[in-house]
Amino acid sequence: MAAAGLLGAVATLASRRLLCAPPGAARGRAAVLGPARRFGASARAWRSSEDKVTVHFINRDGDKLTAEGKIGDSLLDVVVDSNLDIDGFGACEGTLACSTCHLIFEDQIFKKLDAVTDEEMDMLDLAYGLTETSRLGCQICLKKFMNNMTVRVPEAVADVRQSIDMSKNS
């Protein structure tokens, strides 16, 4: 049973990484393990600040949380990797089985996002506080134009797998 759990975790990671992979990027094991180190350059030089995007999250309680992510990371990756304290965020780990990573975008950013898929729309229909500029963070990959954007976490989260809502009033 432990091996099945590990394989499931690797499959989830692989699907999240492939979601944000640029066209022509490595697929399969290479995509999960990441790019090989370039010869003649240190790892730090290769990952410059130009490869990173700063994102500001307005949490349910009004607090502003700021984190950095690499271009190509999903917003779910940014929250998880930065260990941001957003209750219930990303409960399904990016498998499009919930709407807990629901975020509300500013109009000028929302207009530039990639098209929403039918699967994402199905999950957004279950989201609490849905707006015209709502998207799921697991489906939005960081791009350079998003640097210093602010996204808002809705007041509550609806997770159909739980009997209670997690909100700022809980």
Automatic annotation (TrEMBL):
One cellular component term (GO) for this entry is:
mitochondrial matrix
Q: Which family does it belong to?
A: Belongs to the adrenodoxin/putidaredoxin family.
Q: Offer one example of a GO biological process linked to this entry.
A: cellular response to forskolin
Instruction: Pinpoint the 2Fe-2S ferredoxin-type domain residues.
Output: 53-157
Q: Which terms in the Gene Ontology molecular function aspect does this entry carry?
A: 2 iron, 2 sulfur cluster binding; electron transfer activity; metal ion binding
Pfam families referenced in this protein's UniProt entry, alphabetically: Fer2 (PF00111)
| Keyword flag Iron-sulfur | yes
Question: Which gene is transcribed and translated to give this protein?
Answer: FDX1
Cofactors named for this entry: [2Fe-2S] cluster
InterPro entries listed in its UniProt record: 2Fe-2S_ferredoxin-like_sf, 2Fe-2S_ferredoxin-type, Adrenodoxin-like, Adrenodoxin_Fe-S_BS, Beta-grasp_dom_sf
Q: Where, per UniProt, does this protein localize? A: Mitochondrion matrix
Give the transmembrane region(s).
Answer: none
Q: What is this protein called?
A: Adrenal ferredoxin
Taxonomic lineage is: Eukaryota, Metazoa, Chordata, Craniata, Vertebrata
Swiss-Prot/TrEMBL keywords: 2Fe-2S, Cholesterol metabolism, Electron transport, Iron, Iron-sulfur, Lipid metabolism, Metal-binding, Mitochondrion, Steroid metabolism, Steroidogenesis, Sterol metabolism, Transport
